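cron nightly-structures :: item 1 of 1
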Amino acid sequence: MDSTSRFEPVSIARHRTELANGIEWTVVRTRKNWFALPFLCFWLTGWTLGGGAALYALITGDGGERLFLALWLVGWALGWIFAAASILWQIGGRTMVAITGGALVHAWSMPFVTREKRYDAKQIRYLRSGETSSLLGWGRSLRDVPPFMPSMASGSVKFDYGARTIQLFPGLDESEGRMIVDQLAARLPKSAVVIRSSRDGSG
């Protein structure tokens, strides 16, 4: 037996480089959760039917009942939007980073929605990879959390921006974060990748 057959398989990076309108983007697509996605679809179907029944009762009910149903439907609508957005994120979500026009552009998109933030490249400091952990130690379970949800998971790519630490790509391992850091560092000002002596212990 070939001794190399006993080695663990080398994992393949999830990030890809894509060109759009002449801009080179580092793109990570959402990894589908084949337990959560069917469950959300099933739940949303029942939730939609329940909301339809409540809406019919609101139209045909009396005053006291209608007030309660109106308040309930507000919560129903919020739950429906959240579940539908989570399904869309599972189906077509992606996070993207590019260096263009003197800025680091961080964007996320899913069907019907795109959001973007721009950071002045000259103000970026201490670009580095980060640990894939969370405040509760549930780093893996918090991976690929939709960006519209609060997440306690740390990013696999980090940088200082003034008095803030910006964290990107929480769904990746630290080793893949290092790959992305190397790609970004080649296109950022040198000041972005200088490690301060207080950080590296060199005095």
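cron nightly-structures :: done
The beta strands are 16-20, 23-29, 94-100, 103-110, 113-120, 124-129, 157-161, 164-168.
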